[in-house]
Amino acid sequence: MDIMLFHSVYGPRPAVHDAADRLRADGHHVHVPDLFDGQTVESVEEGMALKDKIGKEELLRRAVLAAAPYSERGLVYVGLSLGGSIAQNLALGDTRARGLLLLHGTSDIAENASVDELPVQLHVADPDPFESHDWLTAWYLRMRRTGADVEIYRYPGAGHLYTDPGLPDYDESAAEETWRIGRAFIESL
To answer: Which tens digit of pLDDT belongs to each residue from 110-126?
Structure first.
């Protein structure tokens, strides 16, 4: 299966490549576009500044160009935090998308978005400073209205980017559970 894995606001850190290697070990072809031109940052604030400097439209353009060569085969989109937002936007616009796995992040949903039972799985910290309970409830309802088949997994006490061992948010137990469930989800597609 072809997978597009989008990095977080920290850029293409080692944890992103480790995630890709986990999925490759399952026999998947994993593509990891570098939306930040090789730049990584040390804080969320630096990452947000870099994201804003590049611009949302440019990030989406880069993501679309990275996915285009593989989309005919039916991609599974995977994203980490900011990458989840990007993956969600691409999956909702790709009629051939086979699934969407979101770790740590979601995005607004266009009013006219429509999919045909797209399998979607979201894994988030509970609570999460970037994904409040109210936001997630509204997001879930909007995703269901698009036609997506959505599952949400919450991890009490974990930090926002709890799957990245290089960050203070890291929670080994939550990370391993996320990858166990997420990998099974991808295998089910």
So the answer is: 888 999 999 999 999 99
